[in-house]
Amino acid sequence: MRLAFVVLAALAAIGCRQDMHDQPRYRYNSASDFWGDRRAARPAVQGTVARGQLKTEDTLYWSGTIQGQAVDLFPMPVTKEVIARGMDRYNIYCSPCHGSSGKGDGMIVTRGLKNPPSYHTEALRDQPAGHFFNVITNGNGSMMPYAARIPVPDRWAIVAYIRVLQRSQNVQVAELSASDREKVEKEEPLHPAPRKQEAGH
Amino acid sequence: MAQIFKPSMNTVSKVSIVALLLTAGGVGAALWAINKSPFVARTRIPFDQAVPFSHKHHVAGLGVDCRYCHNTVERSASAGMPATETCMSCHSMVWTNAPMLEPVRQSWATGKSLEWNRVHDLPGFVYFNHSIHVNKGMGCSECHGRVDQMPLMYQQNTLYMEWCLECHRNPEMRVRPKDKVFDMTYQHPADQKELGAKLVAEYKIQKFTDCYTCHR
B50 touching A, CB under 8 A? Predict the structure, then answer.
């Protein structure tokens, strides 16, 4: 009797297998022993062009250039939605270093890094939109490329928002609406200060 | 002929019936508890990783957005694990000599991937898609817990089917405004039921409880 129970328990334990759980297929970011680099996801063969992504066509869209020159044009109409999207993406990907107002005073500066350049200089205000698109795509100096992280339309939206930031810090008082001018003359802030990042650690 | 059972057996038989029921119930309760325990469900167990990455430091301390690293969460089934390039965006300049980050520098120098241990390991027969959840007002912390309070990553919830279904049946109890999806500190208001019902209608959230929603 006791032996039968042990045998039954052993059989039941063997029955508990995880084959359905751990199926013989690769998932996102799985490792593989088959390939030398241990990646299940294979890189595209060199020279592969996805449909509709031939980068020598529509160079304005893909690189912000026309005939090799960075141009001050956008490949799409800059609408309110585009700018809102740009603000959203800027705050995720750019503000850690460039700061939420583009002064180059992001969180990373408090970690001992030297300030990235402020957008609010004559030199950077004069740069064409294509220049900013190129820097986001390919990196610049100690800034890493963001091409792998930010899709092309979002990069353009960010460029549009950088223009908004530049404008926000470079307005003549005479250009303001009457109510805003009144606030400036009373030295009141026009808009609430941007949310401060929690400090610590 | 002597009696086989003494009168005291009346009591013994009653007690043994009760004892049998209690034992059966106790075994059931124990199995239920074991099934939900961290040991079986793998919850609340920090995983060993090549680099002891702290979400607490990066999220609560530095204010880095979830999407800075998990950048495909809004447009793909997988939230995405950061490439070494993402780590090096800061760590080529910050903590460049920290021994803790040696595997990251190795990966950057050699081009070999950092190998992380998967913390949230859904069974192979479950097809989960991050993008539809975050785009319909389901917050990260709803499933992943307060990641901003986790020095080492662990799984907050069991990821059992009953746990998925609890929300798939009553999404109005979990949904939040879309602009709060990535807010780790978000707390549901007291009138969540009313707000939830409004958001469910606004975001056109459907109560998908068919098998083929997740199993195909």
Answer: no
